[in-house]
Amino acid sequence: MTLGPHAGFIVAAYAATVLVVGGLIVWILADYRAQKRTLANLERTGRKPPA
Amino acid sequence: MPLIDLANPSRFLAFTSRILPWLIGGTVLAFTAGLVLALFVAPDDYQQGATVKIMFIHVPNAWLSMFVWALMSVAALGTLVWRHPLADVAAKCAAPLGAAFTALALVTGSLWGRPMWGTYWVWDARLTSVLVLFLMYLGVLALWRTVDDPSRAGRAAAILTLVGAINLPIIKFSVDWWNTLHQPASVMRLGGPTIHPSILVPLLVMALAFTLLFVTLHLAAMRNEILRRRVRTLHLLQARGAHA
């Protein structure tokens, strides 16, 4: 694979995509863990989640 | 499972637990195939050279930027007309994903435009209408953050979303209605695609990969939002219990 004289633009476009998509994945995973942890703490104090 | 059963948040959580691993696997497979085809199999364009490789990420992001707003518009109808319990959850969780895909469409488009057009940006109809779409995504996100009560925020965001849907045909047909530096449609057009199959096939596989990525992230984000609302309800119950 040769990227030619505009390799910098191609690499920057793919890098930006990886960065943004990676950020979305990390954000959603971290949010899931945070919500599960908070819910578990609340349930330990005796509250049941609504159905 | 009948589709109507997914209106129940508990059933929806069980459904996402079952389907997410399959979606993740499908997304990884589609991206692997798409990237191999795009980076190692597809030939360089006879005019644009290797910069055509930017198209394989720019076009799927541009398609998704409009698809996500269209999906939010259907969800907005679900909130305002049918009062579906998951409609505003779907709309709220789609907004940050749509904003990210739109930002990527703008950034990758600029990075493609500089070597091909000689400029990162021009105020032509296509680029400007997509920038307006991005600003509308930010507006919806700001609205969700401003109003504390989810049902009130959902109704306000639904109205803004339906008003913003007017921009979708403007984006689509901007290259036909006005003189633009941006090229006219070359895939979704009445006479069929004008792109050679050696480039069209990798593009379609990448579009499938990005769509699967969106569906996966959207379902995962909806699961988070349902859990967040359960946490909010429990906090309210605790606060009431403390004051009783």
Summarize the helix and strand pattern of chain B as letters: HHHHHHH
Gyration radius of chain A, rounded: 21 Å
Total number of beta strands of chain B: 0
How many helices of chain B does DSSP assign? Answer: 7
Short description:
The complex is a heterodimer of chains A (51) and B (244). Chain A is mainly alpha-helical.
Could you describe the 3D structure shown?
The complex is a heterodimer of chains A (51) and B (244). Chain A is mostly helical. Chain A has a domain at 11-41. Chain A contains 1 helix and no strands. Chain A has one helix spanning 7-44. Chain A is rod-shaped. Chain B has 244 residues and is mainly α. Chain B has one domain (9-180, 193-243). In chain B, 77% of the residues lie in helices and 0% in strands. Chain B has helices at 9-41, 55-82, 87-117, 125-146, 150-164, 167-177, 197-243. In chain B, α3 runs antiparallel to α4, α3 runs antiparallel to α7 (197-243) and α4 runs antiparallel to α6. Chain B is globular and about 75 Å long. The N and C termini of chain B lie far apart (41 Å). The model of chain B has no long low-confidence stretch (mean pLDDT 90). The chains are: A mainly alpha (51), B mainly alpha (244). Chain A binds chain B through residues 1-7, 9-10, 12-14, 16-17, 20-21, 23-25, 28-29, 31-32, 35-36, 38-39, 42-43, 45, 47, 49-51, and chain B through 8-10, 39-40, 44, 49-51, 53-54, 57-58, 61, 96-97, 100, 103-104, 107-108, 111-112, 114-115, 213, 217, 220-221, 223-224, 227-228, 230-231, 233-235, 237-238.
